[in-house]
Structure prediction request, 273 residues.
Amino acid sequence: MNPAVQLGNFLTCEFASSDEWESFVDRFRKGQQPLPQAWADLFGPLCGGMVDDLVVIGQIGQSLDGRVATATGHSKYINCPAGIEHLHRLRALVDVVVVGVGTALADDPQLTVRQVAGPQPARAVIDPKGRLGADAKLFADDGVRRLLITVEGSAAAPPPGVEVIILTEEDGNFAPSAIVAALARAGMRRILVEGGADTVSRFIAARCLDRLHVTVAPVMLGAGGPGIALPPLDRADEARRMQVRVHKIEDDVLFDCDLSDQRIVIGTAKKST
Ligand SMILES: NC(=O)c1ccc[n+]([C@@H]2O[C@H](COP(=O)([O-])OP(=O)(O)OC[C@H]3O[C@@H](n4cnc5c(N)ncnc54)[C@H](OP(=O)(O)O)[C@@H]3O)[C@@H](O)[C@H]2O)c1
Prediction:
């Protein structure tokens, strides 16, 4: 077994030069092997799907006490600057970044790559009731594809140019597999589910993630937005132990969790990018 995937094995993330990063992004996106070693341990597992053609990654940044935001909903920034850079690197490696409407309303994120070099991913918001205004930053017309996932007849009024994906809800929930399949039909092969915790939790519960990056910052927020929430277990020993790679990112600790052994088969992207 590769020692890097043993539970509890610590790897230190050595920050390589920006040239090495640009070379890594280029080779990664073209599917060229070998990948430059400086980044391969951290991002190599995102290159190809283990279960099908798609790679679906969840991410969450949280405090030591398991919070993703304060009680007022403020979350900028729980993680250290290098942790934010890590998030931008993830964005640069995927075809689309997906957020729930709760995050879009609370943070009005741009979802662009700004801290590092790399291409801009498409941006998608899951907004069944059409609560997000047309002036949301993620809808900004900057040449990148923007997608709205909603229901037929919702109140959504996105600006021109936003692609609208219509799905059917069941008990207030779009099946995450239907979201991934719809994005795959739109040509998205690598998908980053960036938050919030509610959205990421739905993808975990539906077994639709290949990997989950949890970046833990050495702070405690007390009360506030809860982290991942899944159906309850009766006993602690029923919890599934997962393979993880652990990286130190400055002050933060990144748990790169391999969920591929429980991921359901979803499909193939219309065209791989
Ligand atoms: N620390 C971090 O890494 C991080 C990252 C992102 C956000 N945040 C923080 O987290 C908070 C927002 O997160 P949140 O967990 O409350 O909300 P969220 O996950 O951003 O959005 C949840 C909402 O999105 C819609 N949605 C998501 N998945 C859906 C599905 N499968 N089917 C149908 N609807 C779906 C629903 O909208 P409706 O309610 O309209 O049905 C749901 O209530 C903010 O405070 C933000 O600052 C932290």
The chain has six helices and ten strands.
